[in-house]
């Protein structure tokens, strides 16, 4: 799953390379509006006649992408780093499948770490009973739950987790890197 997502991250980083240079922040309104210059983006890349990319840029998903990722000051993520710093690496790896696979695996590992920031906190799944297990005589019935003991255990767990780091990663806002200038894209 993560490797497929990493491949798509690489694809979109290549496809949208330099998109930040075609963003314009309009501040006449109370809330700033971000405008994307599609013609400039396609022209700089030599893809004015490319029907696929034109349709992608005209879609609602891309409009959401621009409104979410357009602000110059926001929390940065793996995609921003790829667009800003890794596009040249991605281009260089096009003819070298082992390097490409290595990079995809590195990205997949980063995606996994982003979704599981605290690997030491693990949840154990309880297996479902096998078919016919209720007919076995040797299994004792489930004991009644002692409410006082449950409350004690909850309090102990809360006390232990008091000093633990937060479960989610805190996103620090920063200036989003623009990345390298827009270049020609080869299909």
TrEMBL record:
GO biological process, one term: regulation of Rab protein signal transduction
Domain of life (superkingdom): Eukaryota
Domain (UDENN): residue spans on this chain: 1-76
GO CC entries: cytoplasmic vesicle
InterPro entries: dDENN_dom, DENN_Domain_GEFs, Tripartite_DENN
GO terms assigned for molecular function: guanyl-nucleotide exchange factor activity
Protein's name in the database: MTMRD protein
Lineage: Eukaryota, Metazoa, Chordata, Craniata, Vertebrata
Name of the encoding gene: Sbf2_1
């Amino acid at each position: 799953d993560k490797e497929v997502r990493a491949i798509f991250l690489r694809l979109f980083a290549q496809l949208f390379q330099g998109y930040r240079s075609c963003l314009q922040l309009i501040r006449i309104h109370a809330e700033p509006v971000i405008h994307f210059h599609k013609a400039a983006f396609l022209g700089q890349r030599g893809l004015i006649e490319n029907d696929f990319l034109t349709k992608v840029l005209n879609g609602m998903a891309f409009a959401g992408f621009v409104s979410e990722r357009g602000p110059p000051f926001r929390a940065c993520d793996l995609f921003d780093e790829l667009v800003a710093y890794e596009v040249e690496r991605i281009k260089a790896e096009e003819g070298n499948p082992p390097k490409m696979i290595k990079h995809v695996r590195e990205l997949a590992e980063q995606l996994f770490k982003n979704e599981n920031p605290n690997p030491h906190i693990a949840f154990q799944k309880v297996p479902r009973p096998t078919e016919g297990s209720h007919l076995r005589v040797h299994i004792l019935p489930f004991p009644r739950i002692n409410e006082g003991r449950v409350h004690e255990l909850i309090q102990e767990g809360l006390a232990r987790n008091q000093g633990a780091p937060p479960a989610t990663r805190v996103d620090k806002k920063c200036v989003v890197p623009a990345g390298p200038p827009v270049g020609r894209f080869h299909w």
